[in-house]
Design goal:
Blueprint (H helix, E strand, L loop, with lengths): L2 H13 L2 H8 L3 H15 L4 E4 L2 E4 L1 H25 L6 E7 L4 H13 L3 E7 L13 E5 L7 E15 L1 H7 L5 H4 L4 E4 L8 E4 L2 E4 L4 E3 L2 H9 L4 E5 H10 L3 E3 L6 E10 L6 H17 L1
Parallel strand pairs: 3-4, 3-5, 7-10, 7-11
Antiparallel strand pairs: 1-2, 5-13, 6-11, 6-12, 6-13, 8-9
Length: 289
């Protein structure tokens, strides 16, 4: 049986189509199709159902996929450990929420430690599918209700309300959520989220922002220019809080804590690269505390 053809078959199943696998692997579709045809002939079984919508494994193909995938991953790890002279090399496909500035520093240091690891980092509001999108590790905020993944807790981030001294000089410093709702507010809003409410204990306050966006840097910009109160993650505004250019409002009352998680496939053994990334993230975040 052709080991390389088996790897190509696994890549096509993961991608869901020959065209998507061709793009990811930089290999002509004709070559992919020919190799998998040869694999089917060698095994004397049809592995894929082909259609205009893509490909899906047959019953026998799914069985072969599940068993072969684990073996291929083990062989690849063994090959890397021998041929790389103990240097980690390869490519990691990551997903990070948009405007997550903290993570760019982490990735810079990660690649300085592991210069032979190439990184592709997808940043979008869309929650990626680890399997269909071929992502090794995703960074997620908030609680998850997803099967077939492992979520490794990394840290807890806090959403803070901040404003500039100039804005507070004009309007006064609010003592409650109700008072803060009377100030000009810049808020996070996505295409599918259009209601605005703060809550702390039994107190719930609805508000109407003068500006809303899905861009964290814009919220910070509005706050720094004295245009509004903004709610942003603590790590995004730490430099301006330390310099005094921004002031936290209602500390201990109106803050929201969100878990930060590293999510990866639960159905397979993490590769050497994935394990190195997970360990590095834990170490790096530990230095922040």
């Amino acid at each position: 049986m052709d080991f390389n053809a088996t790897k190509l078959f696994i890549a096509v199943v993961n991608a869901g189509s020959f065209s998507a696998a061709s793009e990811r692997m930089s290999m002509p579709i004709s070559t992919l199709s020919r190799k998998i045809n040869e694999l089917e002939q060698a095994l004397n079984v049809q592995l894929l159902n082909r259609s205009k919508q893509g490909v899906k494994p047959t019953y026998q193909g799914q069985q072969f996929f599940e068993q072969a995938r684990l073996g291929v991953e083990l062989l690849e790890d063994a090959q890397k450990s021998v041929t790389s002279a103990h240097k980690l090399q390869g490519k990691l496909r990551l997903s990070v929420p948009p405007n997550f500035s903290l993570w760019w520093d982490l990735l810079l240091e990660f690649q300085q430690r592991y210069p032979d690891i190439k990184v592709f980092c997808h940043s979008s509001e869309r929650v990626v599918d680890l399997f269909e999108d071929g992502v090794d590790v995703a960074l997620r905020m908030g609680n998850l209700n997803i099967d077939d993944v492992i979520a490794k807790p990394l840290m807890t981030a806090e959403a803070l309300f901040v404003a500039s001294p100039a804005l507070l000089a004009r309007y006064g410093t609010p003592k409650t959520l109700t008072e803060m709702a009377q100030l000009p507010i810049a808020a996070w809003e996505s295409l599918t989220h259009g209601s605005f409410e703060w809550g702390s204990g039994v107190e719930k306050v609805k508000y109407e922002p003068l500006f809303s966006t899905n861009n964290t840097q814009a919220l910070i910009h509005y706050a720094l220019r004295g245009m509004s109160v903004s709610q942003v993650m603590d790590f995004s505004v730490r430099p301006w809080l330390e310099s005094g250019e921004l002031i936290q409002l209602l500390p201990g009352i109106a803050k929201q804590s969100l878990p930060l998680l590293l999510v990866y496939a639960g159905h397979k053994r993490p590769s050497t690269l994935v394990r190195a990334y997970l360990d590095f993230c834990s170490e790096w975040v530990g230095r922040l505390k």
